[in-house]
From TrEMBL:
Swiss-Prot/TrEMBL GO biological process terms: riboflavin biosynthetic process
Classification lineage: Archaea, Thermoproteota, Thermoprotei, Thermoproteales, Thermoproteaceae
Cofactor annotation: Zn(2+)
Gene Ontology MF terms in the entry: hydrolase activity, acting on carbon-nitrogen (but not peptide) bonds, in linear amides; metal ion binding
Protein's name in the database: Uncharacterized protein, putative amidase
Keyword Hydrolase: yes
UniProt entry keywords in alphabetical sequence: Hydrolase, Metal-binding, Zinc
Keyword Oxidoreductase: no
Length: 242
């Protein structure tokens, strides 16, 4: 159920056990993928899981934070402080509206710190349980190992394959010289290293991408996300005592 399409009486009657929130960013993804890639993929997964489980689907948060790719045209980066406050206020409102468990389907690495900070704060002050799923890390691990030939990255084989499978009409032809891979020995911050690392807004090998690989990854990711939502509906948290 799409939260924003319900009337308030419909929302009042709706099952509010589990809700899904997709988060991403508007950011350069090579010369071949759309600026909204991270948000689009989070939306795709959250929508599929909501359809299969009947969970509430919140409007996506399209904006995020990047400290590397904001020099490319079209990127929109908001500050980490603003992002944290936005997430915090959304979580508070989700709790106030009676949702018991919230699954954040996050599609962008630059959002992680703000999401974690906001989740910790709201979890302390409300009864809301928040599960943050950084989907490209947490889901479809076995499928990725099985189908990918090159390292995962940014607008790379993995991400390009996924967009090919979910939104083929938004993928441009991958240029022959699009592949780009740079490794750093330490964590290095600064304009100089950013310019070296992302000359084309790519980190990886998009030339090896295919829709078939993307479908394999997405099918596994949706199945795992659906299983998580179903468990949460039963009161089973993704925590195991060893």
């Amino acid at each position: 159920m799409r939260w924003w399409e319900l009337t308030w009486p419909e929302f009042e009657r709706a099952d509010k056990t589990v809700a899904l929130l997709p988060t991403g960013i508007v950011e350069a993804h090579g010369p071949h993928l759309p600026l909204g890639t991270d948000a689009l993929m989070a939306v795709y997964l959250a929508e599929e899981a909501a359809k299969r489980t009947g969970a509430l689907l919140l409007p996506p948060v399209w904006y995020g934070n990047t400290y590397v790719l904001d020099r490319f045209p079209g990127t929109i980066s908001i500050s980490s402080e603003t992002l944290y406050r936005l997430y915090r206020d959304i979580f508070r409102e989700v709790a106030r509206n009676g949702v018991k468990r919230l699954v954040v389907v996050n599609g962008h690495g630059g959002n992680v710190d703000a999401l974690n900070m906001a989740a910790k704060e709201v979890a302390r002050e409300t009864d809301l349980t928040i599960v943050v799923v950084n989907w490209w890390i947490d889901l479809a691990k076995e499928a990725r190992r099985r189908v990918l030939e090159t390292p995962e990255g940014h607008a790379a084989e993995d991400e390009t394959s996924e967009v090919m499978a979910a939104y083929p009409h938004l993928v441009k032809e991958v240029p022959r010289d699009a592949d780009e891979w740079v490794e750093a020995k330490y964590r290095v911050y600064g304009r100089e290293v950013y310019e070296i690392s992302y000359r084309k807004a790519v980190q990886g090998y998009p030339s090896r991408a295919s829709a078939e690989k993307g479908r394999a990854i997405l099918e596994a990711a949706v199945e795992e996300l659906v299983a998580l939502v179903e468990d949460l509906k039963k009161g089973v948290l993704p925590v195991r005592r060893k």
